[in-house]
Amino acid sequence: MRASLLSSALLLFGGVVQAGTPGKRKNGPGGNGPPVDASILAHTGQPEGKEVVHNNITIYITLPSPRNPRSKPRSQTAVLILTDVFGLDLVQNRLLVDSFARAGYLTIAPDLFDGSPAPEDINTPSNPSFNVTDFLARHNTTVTDPIISTTISYIRNQLKIPKIAAAGYCFGGRYAFRVINSPSVLGGADVAFTAHPSLLTDGEISGIEKPVAVAAADVDSLLTPAQRASLEGLLLERGRPYQVSTYGQTVHGFAVRANYSIASQKLGKEEAFLQAVRWFDRFLL
Ligand SMILES: *[C@@H]1O[C@H](CO)[C@@H](O)[C@H](O)[C@H]1NC(C)=O
Ligand SMILES: *[C@@H]1O[C@H](CO)[C@@H](O)[C@H](O)[C@H]1NC(C)=O
Ligand SMILES: *[C@@H]1O[C@H](CO)[C@@H](O)[C@H](O)[C@H]1NC(C)=O
Ligand SMILES: *[C@@H]1O[C@H](CO)[C@@H](O)[C@H](O)[C@H]1NC(C)=O
Asked: Domains, the chain, ranges and CATH?
């Protein structure tokens, strides 16, 4: 009797009850698997994915486990990670790919820097031989766009996956906007998330066609409070689904390179990851 009342209540609220285990939901609302929590986000440890080379581009890829109840409903979707300037050399970038795969998404990150990512933070280059200006000039949109469009065509044509979510961080954040711009030179994604994007132009913000979510640091010289307000104003004007979340007491790069001994940064990285997964769940499924 109790079980059936509980079942009715769960059904009323959109849950699906697994036979014989009253109260335990087999699927979340919409039948898309259980909700995610921050325990699936890895910040340290060994990456679990593999590398493939496609058209001379190295791509890091992690497949979701077939035993994960979230995987099957996401079999027609992929997450495309567009990294910061540290690229695939930074273990946190690979671990982010793995973490999205644990959310049930096949996840992929191209090497945007042809084997030579930045060695140091572009904000505080402590390596005097590293010239940020030169690095960014060499990795301009003319050079970077084709790498991303090739990766998108790999997802669609080789992997035969039709729906793509782009998640861009710092340097890659700008390109998360570019892939949902129209006319898209990049083959297009269906939804985007970006954390602390840099070098974004007003035109790229106003040009979006698809939903975008933004995770911003409160302290960020590359996306200042004034730029953040302007970004939000442009998204409001554009009239597409959007979300701008500012995480207090975080710094540029927190969604990738948070200092886990600082509670606000650890929380910020976890929340930004969950923000991305929920945004993708909402608009891809
Ligand atoms: C392929 O990659 C290598 C190493 O990054 C580079 O030297 C070469 O020019 C690339 N070839 C083409 C056709 O892009
Ligand atoms: C850094 O690169 C830029 C652009 O290539 C160049 O103009 C500048 O002189 C370089 N700076 C240093 C310190 O080498
Ligand atoms: C972009 O970078 C490439 C390679 O470094 C360079 O040849 C090209 O002139 C640059 N394009 C622009 C618009 O700066
Ligand atoms: C992380 O934060 C702690 C506490 O503020 C600090 O002691 C440490 O140097 C920081 N680590 C890095 C790598 O910045």
From this structure: 38-123+130-284 (3.40.50.1820)
